[in-house]
Amino acid sequence: MGGNKKNDLLNICKKGDRSVFPKYEEKEVNHEEYVERLSQKDFSTLSEGLLEFLKSFVEDEAIIFEDQEEDAPAEVIMSQEFVSFLKITSAVVKAFIQDTKRKVPDALGELVSGMHDILIAVNRLKPELANDMSAIFEMWWIQERPGKESLAPQTISFLVYKALDDGKVMDVQRVHALRSTLLLIDFLDESATSLKRLLLRCLIHPNFLKNKKGQLFLVYLFGLSPPFVDELHMTIKAQVPTSRKSILEAYGNIYYKAWKAASGPYLLKLEYTCIQDLMTNAIHVATPQIVAGIRRILGIFNANKKVRGVDQMLLRLYEPILWRNLKVSNHIVRKNAAMLLIDAFPLNDPDARQKDTDQLLQKQFDVLQMLLYDESIEVRIVGVQGVCRIMGVYWELIPEATLHTLMANMINDLVYDATSAAVRVAVLEGLQYLLDNHLTQPLLKVVLPKLNNVLHDKTEKVRSVFIDLLVTIRSLKFIKYYEVVQVEHLLERLAVDSDIVGTKISELILNSYFPADKSCSIQLKRCILLLNANPRAATNFYKHLPSHVPTALATKFVGAIFSYLSNVIEGEQETDLTDLNPLATIMSCLCQSLNSKLKLQENESLRESLYEIITDDKVESLVESDRLAKSKSFMLKMLSQVPKDSVPTMSTMCLDTLTHARHIQVEDFEEIELGSNF
Fold first, then answer.
1. What is the pLDDT of residues 36-94, one digit of tens each?
2. CA-based end-to-end distance of the chain
3. What's the burial of 292, exposed, middle or buried (CB within 10 Å: 0-12/13-18/19+)?
4. pTM for this one?
5. Residue 500, Cα to own-chain centre: how many angstroms?
6. Which one-letter DSSP state was computed for residue 547?
7. What angle do CA 227, 165, 109 make, to 5 degrees?
8. Is the CA virtual torsion 519, 520, 526, 528 positive or negative?
C-alpha cells in the first residue's frame, strides 16, 4: 500500500496530469509516513515535479496574482486543482522539513520560494490554506534552511496582517518569533510602504499592547530604521488623548525597553525625537487629559530611576526645557512644568561631584518653595501636592532646615490662603499623606496644633477635609486628635455644622461618647455627659449614630433611653439631668434615623425586642408627664413608628383627640395605623 502511495504522487508528477489532485487530496494519506519511505533521490524528483506544477498553475491563473485590493473581487477564484495541489504540497513539504537533518534538494528550495511569492494572493481567497503555507515558511526560517531570506517579506506581512485581523494571542507570538525577518526589509524603499502601514497598526492593537510578546515585538520595531522611529512615535502620540491607563503604561514600557536596548543613532532618536518630545508636549499642551496621558507614559522612566543611566538621561533631557518653563508668564505652562519636576524628583546625576549634586538638589528645593507662592492658584495647588509627596517619600534625604521651611510655609501661610479654598484643602490632604511616614511625626506633633482654627474655616470642604485629618490622627499613637483641636470646639462645630461635616465629627468622637464595647449604662452616662456639655451637639451626634455603629447596638440604646426616662418619671431612678426633654428628643431622633433599617426583614427580631420595651403604660406615663412636655411632639413622632397594637391606649387617645379637635368621625380613621412606618 505504501508503494502505491509513493507511485501515486510520483506518477502524477511524471504524467503532468494536474486534474487528479482533487481526487488525490480525498485519499487518507499519511504524509509523514509517505515522506519517510521516499529516498533522497525520489524526493528530489518529486520536488522537481511539484515545482513544474506550481509554475504551470501560476502561469494559467495569473489573474489571481495581479495587484488586487485587500479583498479580491468575487469573480476571481482559484481552481479546485490549484487549491488541492497547494494543500498536498504544503503537507508534503512540512512532513519533510520536520526532520532538521534532512538535506534540502535545490528544487524544494525553489518550490518553497515560489509558494512564498503567492502567499498574500492566496490569503485573499483561501486564508486557511495561506496559514498552512506560512507555517512552512516559519519553520524554514527558524531552522535556518538555505534561502530563508527569500521567504521573509510576504511571510512577515501575512503574519502581521493575520494577527491584526484574527486578533489571537498565538498569532502575535508567531509574529514575534519571526521579528528578525524585518531586518531584511529596506524601510526607505517604497516597496515597504504597505508593511510599514501594517506595523504602525500593531502599535494601536490591544493584542500587541496587552501581550508580553506583543510588547516585545513593538519594542523591536524601534530598532529597524531611524526614520521609521519618527513614524512610530507619531502614531503613539496620536493615541494619547483617547488611551486608557493600561495602554498608556504599555506605551511607557515600550519606550523604556526600546531606550534600554538602543545605541548609536537609535538612542539619539529615542531620546530627542521621542522622550524629549513627550516632555516638551507635556509642558506646552493645554489639555489636562493629554498632559496626564504623557505623564503616565513618562512615569515608567521615573519608576525606573534606580536603573543605571535613567537618572542621567532624565536630567540631560529635562535640563534644556524645564527650568525656563517654570518661570514663564503662562501659568498653565508653569503648572505643567511643575508637575513634571515633581514626577521626576530628584533630578540627579549619580556620577556628578557631590558639590554639583548638592547645588542641583538645592535648586529644586528653591523651585518648590517658589511654587508654593506662585500667583496662580492652580500652580500653588500643584506645589503643595508636590512638596507633600516629596517630603513624604524623601524625608530623610532633605536637609532639616529645608523641611522646617517648607512645613512653615504650609502651616503658617497656605493653610489660611484667603484667595483659594482649594489651596487650603491641598495642604490638609498633603498633611494627611505625610502622616503615613513615621519619620515625619516628631515635627508634625509640634506643628499640627497650630491648625486648630481651621475647624472654623468658612468653607465646608475645608472643614470636612480637616476632620478627615483628625480621624487619621486618631489612629496614631504619637499625637491625640484633641491635642490638635479641643473637644469643646468640636462639639460647638457639631452643634451648628452641616450633616456632611457633622457625621464626620460624630465618627471622630464616637469612642468617647458611645463606646461600643461598653454596657448600655455606661453609654447612657456618656450621653448624659454630652447633653450637659452641649445639648445641640448631643442631638446631632446621636442622629448620626446609626451610620457608625451596628443597627443592633443603636436599637438597644433606644430601648435603654426609653427605660431610663420611664424609671426617672416613675421615681425609680435618680438623674443628673435638670431637663429630660433633650434626652427624649435624642431618643426620638435616633429612632427616626433607625426607621429605614428596622423595616428590613433581617432586623425583625430587633423590632420585636424594641416593642417589648416600649409598652403602653410606660408610653402613657411619658407622654402625660409635665417633665417631658417640651418633647411631647418628638415622642409622638417616634410612637408613630410603633404598631398600634403595642400601644393601644395611646392609639385611642390620639384618635379621640383628633376627632374632638377637628370634628372628624372616628370611622374616617379606620385605615390609619399608628405604626404604619414600621
1. 888 889 899 999 999 999 999 888 876 566 554 544 444 557 889 999 999 999 999 99
2. 90
3. middle
4. 0.83
5. 28
6. G
7. 75
8. negative
